[in-house]
Structures are given as C-alpha cells and as structure tokens.
Amino acid sequence: MPDPDPRFDSAIDIAPPPVDAEPSVNADFPWDAFDSTAYFEHNYSSLRADDEKIIDIVARFFQDNELRRLRPQAIDVGAGANLYPALMMLPFAAELTLCERAFSNRQWLEAEILQPHPSWWQFWSHMNVGREAYRPIKNPFDLLGRRARVTKGNIFSLPPGRYDLGTMFFVAESITNRESEFVRATRSFVNSLKPKAPFAAAFMRNSSGYRVGSSSFPACSVDEDDVRAALAPVAGGVTIQTVESKSLRDGYCGMMVATGFKKA
Ligand SMILES: C[S@@+](CC[C@H](N)C(=O)[O-])C[C@H]1O[C@@H](n2cnc3c(N)ncnc32)[C@H](O)[C@@H]1O
C-alpha cells in the first residue's frame, strides 16, 4: 500500500498559521512606539475632576502612613507620560524609580523631569492644599529632578522585595487583553515592595482598550472584584474606591484606586 499523502493525514495537526491575528499578550504590542506627547496632551495637559479625586485618596493615604520618616526607595511602575504618581510620593522617598518598558516614554520622562510642562503645577497645587506632608516642599520640580531616575524595566520581571513605597497607575489592566497577565502584573508590582510597604494602584474600570496617536493598545476589562482578587494573595489592608470618570474617551466605566500594604 502506498504511503498516505501527509497533507491529508488527519492525525497531523496542520492548522493554518493565524492570518492577521489580533495581538493579545503584552509582548505583542508596539510599546516602543507609544506616542508620549499625544498621551500627555490627552490625559494630563490639564487637571480633571477624576484625577483630583484620585489625588485626594492617594495623597491622604500616603500622608497618613508615611509622615514619620523618609523612605529610601520608591517605584512608579509603567510611569508612561504621567508625573503625578511620582509627585505624590515625593515627600516620602529619597529616590524615585520611574520604571518603563517603552523607549519613547523613557525619553519623554528623562526630558520631562528636567523641564516639566506647566500643567503639573495644577496637580501639585491640588496635592499641596491642606496636606502638611506636601506643604514644606516649595520647589517640587527641582526636588523631583534630583530624586527621580528613569529606568528600563518590565513589570513582569521586577526584583522582588526591593522598594519601600510604590505606585502603579493604569498599567496592569492596560497592557494586555489577558486576565492572567493582569493578575501576574498586579502581583509582580506588589511583590517588588518590601513587606508592609504601602502602595497605591489605579485601574480603568471595564475598559475595552484605547488609542494613543495612531496606535491601538489593549485592556483587560476588570472591576472591583477582579482587583480585590488579584491583590488578595500579596496585599493586606486593601481599600478599593471607585472614581467617577466619563470624559476621557469611550469604552470604560470609571476608574478604581486601590491602596494597601505588601503582606508581611
Ligand atoms: C495606559 S499607560 C499608563 C501610563 C501612566 N502610568 C499613567 O498613569 O497614565 C500604560 C503604560 O504601561 C507601560 N507598559 C507596557 N507594558 C509594560 C511592561 N511590561 N512593563 C512596564 N511597563 C509597561 C506602557 O509603556 C505605558 O507607559
């Protein structure tokens, strides 16, 4: 009997390669082409009410838990084109690491910490009012320039147990379509902190993805229960607050802010 034609052998898996498959994992997206200027202009060229609310939650949390001593090392993971998480940690950290995967965002951050856009004063003024931890700092951007350093980094491979204080704003749910990567990123962020270190993390609520300039970026649609479940094995004293937000774009249902402490 002649050998069967292998093209028709049903035991061989010859599924065709995906044609124009949609990217879904973090590594598939064009992070190095992230348009930092477009992102900054859209999100942070003026202070909105949702960011005011986030500042109220996070600055109060840090002030209530940090006032007594300057912590050696803080990290903002996936800093992007946003300085306000770093500004919120400024009174409490001797060194601030702005960790970014995207080359474009690292370049933008390097320039921005030396010559910040004027809109960051709106964010600083909102933090500063009525908060004694922030009030003594008269030149926040000089101090930020001295304390902050931009580093290349990947949220999935952060060194464990290194940092004394941390923020992660709109990263774990906004870098992938996969729930497993959202969970892994969230836990890796918290695991990069020392035991009992405080953190704040912000998330888009039920986001379906976003455009920056001419590129599309993913989202994993998460709500308060998903954030709570992702944090549960690694964090204690967690509070999750929902922040109303509608005006940024279509395709999301508000924002969430989680505060808590790395488990001892
Ligand atoms: C939606 S933006 C958030 C930027 C900023 N934190 C903010 O609050 O607006 C997501 C950021 O995550 C960064 N990013 C993507 N994948 C990453 C990874 N694997 N590790 C670290 N950062 C990553 C992107 O370059 C981008 O700056």
UniProtKB/TrEMBL annotation:
GO biological process, one term: methylation
Keywords: Methyltransferase, S-adenosyl-L-methionine, Transferase
Annotated GO MF terms: methyltransferase activity
InterPro entries: NNMT_TEMT_trans (IPR000940), SAM-dependent_MTases_sf (IPR029063)
A Pfam match: NNMT_PNMT_TEMT
PROSITE patterns: SAM_MT_NNMT_PNMT_TEMT (PS51681)
Matching NCBIfam families: SCO2525_fam
Full protein name: NNMT/PNMT/TEMT family protein
Native species: Actinoplanes auranticolor
